[in-house]
Amino acid sequence: MANVTFDLRGDMLDARYAPGGAAHEQFASNFVTQVNAVGTGIIGAGYLDMDHGISQNQGLVFHGKGSVSTNNKMSVLIRCAFGQNTGNIAIWGITPPGYGYNGTAGALIDSTHIYQEAENYGAGSDLLVNIGTWTPVVDQYYDIVMLYDMSTASGNHCKIYVDNVLISAANGGVWPNPRLVDAMNIMVGPSPYQGASFTRIKVNEFVIWDDIINPSSVVLDSGSGPLNGQSRTSFVASAALDGGLFTDPGVTHVQTGTTYEFAGVLQTGTFAGGTTTDPGINNVLNGVAYEINGGNLTGVYVSPTVGNVKVGINYGVNGTSQIGTYDGSDRWTDPGVANVRLGIAYEADSTTNNRTGTLIVPSPANVLVGVGTDNTVGTFTTPTAGQIASAVWEEPTSSHTTAHTFGWFVKKLLTVAKFLGLK
């Protein structure tokens, strides 16, 4: 899968996506300007004017390291319109620092042909390869795609498409040059080839990929589609990234032994981790991994669910507030007020007293001896038969005056008998 490694659009001079840095430099005398415009073939807000009606070498230069493919495959798109179609017109290049010639890759056109430039390792000089016959129409926007595939030892390593049509293919040299790939400059406009005498183009888009693309199906902002020239209405998709915006964290903030590069200088971290306190795996949520002094640990604490926390109690789980709902009903039953001592208040399925007992418990003195009552036994004893008989027969009649009682009746009989003189 091909990934975008550099993206320049016509709405600003700086790159949109550039891991090597989005800031631009002018190739010569600040000739290039950004022009806001609408028109046939213009995608977005405008174009980068490298024409101005002047036949001169002009263009933009970007830091290539990080933005240029380091493998043996690369794809390049330039969407541009030409101010003229005669002479040697440069359109793009990738070259060593100093904007010198004998670069590694590039492209230019003349009145009848389109060329690919590549370095000849053995000879140490440029190869200018005539890829195919093509003449542009002045002021018409084209999608010019160049594919470099050096993954095989032979074959046509370079192909050029114009508006999704293959112009031709040729063995166009070698890519990449391992001696230079970490110090490349991306030139939009100028070509590394000495024979490219000037630049007269308006650039609407310039993209580099790290692999071979299919010009018939490229991921665009609006979805997949072909690089088919003026009829295309959407840019190649990319996220905004400026790799040139960064600050040095400092070696004391980078882990000991970890190397990184800042401003072209290799640095090695010295941070040993500082002072740490282990909370203990029992205090870290179950399954959460953490590191203490280089040792990897995993928490085992299992947070209770709301159903296991007392009703109304607030607590937190993973930063989320929870309220307990457990009421303990699985561990008690209501004895009922009839079974609770009179006047005793108690709770039943409530957080406050909501019931009061009605049971009257007899005192031990009113309960037969030996019979259980409350938390003891009764002390009341019943009289014997003799005691009952003695009490009846020895009961003074004078104590029984209530009318119509048995004692009253007996007393009355005795009074009558005495009156009658009965013995």
Secondary structure elements and their pairing?
Layout: E1 4-9, E2 17-18, E3 25-26, E4 33-36, E5 46-50, E6 60-63, E7 73-82, E8 89-95, E9 105-109, E10 113-120, E11 125-133, E12 141-149, E13 158-162, E14 165-170, E15 185-188, E16 201-209, E17 218-220, E18 223-225, E19 241-242, E20 259-262, E21 265-268, E22 289-292, E23 295-298, E24 314-317, E25 320-323, E26 345-346, E27 355-356, E28 372-373, E29 376-377, H1 385-393, H2 406-420
Describe the protein in words:
This protein is mainly beta and 423 residues long. The chain has three domains: 4-242, Jelly Rolls (Sandwich); 247-296, no CATH class; 383-420, no CATH class. Helix content is 6%, strand content 32%. It contains two helices and 29 strands. It has helices spanning 385-393, 406-420, and strands spanning 4-9, 17-18, 25-26, 33-36, 46-50, 60-63, 73-82, 89-95, 105-109, 113-120, 125-133, 141-149, 158-162, 165-170, 185-188, 201-209, 218-220, 223-225, 241-242, 259-262, 265-268, 289-292, 295-298, 314-317, 320-323, 345-346, 355-356, 372-373, 376-377. The strands form nine sheets. Strands 1, 4, 5, 7, 12, 13, 14 and 16 form an eight-stranded antiparallel sheet that branches. Strand 10 and strand 11 form a beta hairpin. The chain is rod-shaped. The termini are far apart. Mean pLDDT is 80; it is low at 98-103, 120-126 and 174-179.
Distance between the termini: 143 Å
Q: What is the name of the CATH topology of the largest domain?
A: Jelly Rolls
Can you tell me the residue ranges where pLDDT is under 50 for at least 5 consecutive residues? 98-103, 120-126, 174-179
| CATH top level label of the largest domain | Mainly Beta
Helix content: under 10%
**Beta-strand content:** 25-35%
CATH architecture of the largest domain: Sandwich
What's the count of strands? 29
Characterize the biggest β-sheet: 8 strands, antiparallel
Return the average pLDDT rounded to an integer.
Answer: 80
Over all CA atoms, what is the radius of gyration?
52 Å
Question: Which outline best applies?
Answer: rod-shaped
Computed structural class: mainly beta
| Total domain units | 3
Name the assembly state: single chain
Number of helices: 2
